[in-house]
Design a protein that fits this description.
Layout: E1 7-16, E2 21-28, E3 38-43, E4 61-62, E5 65-68, E6 75-84, E7 92-101, E8 107-116, E9 121-124, H1 130-142, E10 145-148, E11 151-154
Parallel strand pairs: 5-11
Antiparallel strand pairs: 1-2, 2-3, 3-4, 5-6, 6-7, 6-10, 7-8, 8-9
């Protein structure tokens, strides 16, 4: 974690696989700036990464919780983020269940997922269905899927 160049770094979670461990940390890319705290996902042993890895160490992902527009003072984004064994067809994932206010002030719901392997992390956008939500709930209840506690923040200027 010390090699990642972020400010206000915090350990969030780890996901242990058979040959590698993935870390989820929070932080911001600059010191004393307006950038929001985001999530970053990186492997303990980067030398195991294949060329098929689509997630880079400087890629950032939305922190769960609510984001309020700094001008209009209205909530424009909400997300819950889960990690672990959360879905039937995947081993270890990080999944965001989110909704964002569009320009016409309609809420658009979606899901975003990163599937973790020993040698790569693959992003995808699964369809947000009741089945997906039920699977997350089921694995959460079993203790195989964990939620990252959300925070409230303002949008970046």
């Amino acid at each position: 974690m010390d090699t990642i160049n972020l400010y206000d770094k915090q350990f969030v979670a780890e996901i242990k696989l058979t040959e590698n461990t993935w870390y989820i940390i929070s932080g911001r890319p600059c010191e004393n700036c307006d950038a929001n705290i985001n999530l970053y996902i990186f492997p303990k042993t980067p030398k195991l990464l294949s060329t098929g890895n689509l997630i880079k160490s400087n890629d950032n992902f939305s922190y769960p919780g609510e984001e309020t527009d700094f001008i209009d003072e209205i909530i424009t984004y909400e997300a819950n983020t889960f990690y672990g064994k959360c879905l039937n067809e995947f081993d270890e994932v990080v999944v965001w269940v989110q909704r964002r206010l569009d320009d016409q002030e309609n809420w658009i719901e979606s899901a975003y997922m990163i599937e973790l392997f020993n040698d790569k992390a693959l992003p995808s956008k699964p369809e947000l269905t009741q089945s997906l939500l039920d699977q997350i709930d089921e694995f959460f209840e079993r203790g195989n899927c964990f939620e990252i506690e959300g925070i409230s923040r303002y949008s970046e200027p």
